[in-house]
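User: I'm new to structure prediction. If I give you an amino acid sequence, what do you actually give back? Let's try with this one:
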Amino acid sequence: MNKTILEFDVVICGSGPSGATAAFLLSKHGLKVALIDKKQFPRDKLCGGLLTEKSYKLIKSMFGNDFFESNLIEFSSNKFEIFYGKLKILSAFSKKLFIYVDRKKFDFAILKMALDSGVNFFSKTKIIDIDIKNMSVFTNNNIFKGRYIIASDGVNSVIRGCLIKKGILDDKEYKDNLTLAMEIYNYEFATDRASIYFGFTKFGYGWVFPNKKRTLVGIGALISKNKGLIKKQFKNFLNSIGLDAPKIFNAHLIPTGWISNRFGFDNILLVGDAAGFVDPITGEGIYYAVKTGQMSAEAILMSEKNKLFAEVNYNSLIQNIVSNLKRRKMYRNLIFGTRFRLVIKFFLLIILFLFKDKLLKFIHE
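Assistant: Good question. You get back a string of structure tokens that encode the predicted 3D arrangement of the chain. For your 365 residues, that looks like this:
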């Protein structure tokens, strides 16, 4: 069956926070934008939903001060505690609030901002392949052609995979830096603070996050460092805090610590999880998704004026982010890389007691 060819200025593949942000900004500047996604929105999204101060400020600056007034904030608290195993190492207050959102509502709210700006949205549209020469995206429904393409299709990005197959991107460290996150929702176990647990897994941690009607409990760790043990480690973690392990877990992959050799090709740009823009220590991805979505839009708008490939402009904009992620990856390897768990324990004790405020600044900023 012949497929219809649809032409746009920009084709954005994936309508999570990174793709929807880019679509919103580009459409506001008069470009004809196609935003495509394999899901129908609103859709469920596995995520802790914690927004740091930098994420909260960035999102308000992008979408307006009233963005969060439509019941998007599920919970907010400045209380947090840190454990090593069952031992509580620190219980304290943060000067800045931790904000918790439901990703189903949050992602849909950003998408609605994009739609209101005039973006053409195509749901239930699965990306199959791309033609980088003719700037075409092949899907199960139609063929989309654009002068620019943004890959915001997540950790399992089809577009990134196509660029890897063509030898444009190098993925030699990609699998070694994949984190598996496992989560459950509990509607009986109530808390008013974020709790972080070290010692149950290697190169990762467990968490308990508050919410309006439920508590989110999860664990995340590098697959390459745990040899298939993460599910067992999660069960041990749940039992340690008095919860029974369910038969079925929610699980998803996070690209933590993979730094690509390139973040696009000519007028094709990779953003968010598709580009590996996730904090290697905390696993925070929302800030980097929105920020790189913004920067991809800026790069394209710059290209409209200076006629350079968007990749050139994008590279100049993301240098600080790339440098920051490389530095945080180094810190991750320093903190978790030791063979002796006891060393980690005392290292955490010293760092947390002496540098609590700097640690919070590190997280929030």
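You can read the tokens as a compact description of the fold. Here is one thing that stands out. Residues 310-336 form the longest helix (27 residues).
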